[in-house]
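help with this.
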Amino acid sequence: MYLTWLDSNSWLIEIGNQRILLDPWLVGSLIFGNVDWFFKGSRPQERPIPENIDLILLSQGLEDHAHPPTLKQLDRNIKVVASPNAAKVVQGLGYTSVTSLAHGESFTLNNQVEIKAFPGSQIGPTLVENGYLFKELETDLTLYYEPHGYHSPQLKQFAPVDVIITPIMDMGLPLLGPILKGTNSALEVAKWLQPQVMLSTAAAGDVIFEGFLTKFLKTAGSFEEFRSLLEKNNLATKVIEPNPGDRFELRLEKRAVAI
């Protein structure tokens, strides 16, 4: 299994000889609702569009997961699996093969990788987006991704899971509460799933954030603090701090899984 973190929530996951582009923001700025004075993300240089993509996987319909400028640059014939909200975005952009995955539903990619949707981040009072559990069918190796730290107790029945990608640090707004549920939420899911490896997502990497909202964002936690919490809870999980753009291999032990 190879992973490449592409900043923010964006990943290239190579599993089961498949190349899966996850929540890609690679070109242009990140702006919500075309209001750049309120919040804007930019990077010194754009990320190259990865080649030979087998699947685009989208966990949410918001711009930091289903980024319209990036999606417009990608081949509209690439298969897409998405939360129902994100599926509307790519369908509106003219993608030709879109699978909307509701919670509890699964999709199998080229007989190599099974992707199962779980309840993920809550957006507003009623919308719950997707987290995903990947299974490499040949080896039974598994990976779980949820980009805001909202983890469904339904995951417990699929333990152990080999790799978790989720926020490890907290981010929130005064009065409004958490945007990213990091330290405690990550520790809880680590206890549930007993992963071999955890990686943090939703960090800035090389990205520069600006705008009115950034004045009020509060962050807490660190990799060192989280490693200490794992040790105190007798968890042997390895925490990896990826560098943006670097492709690296995860060397995992094969374990029995319950999927």
Q: What stands out?
A: The chain has a mean pLDDT of 90.
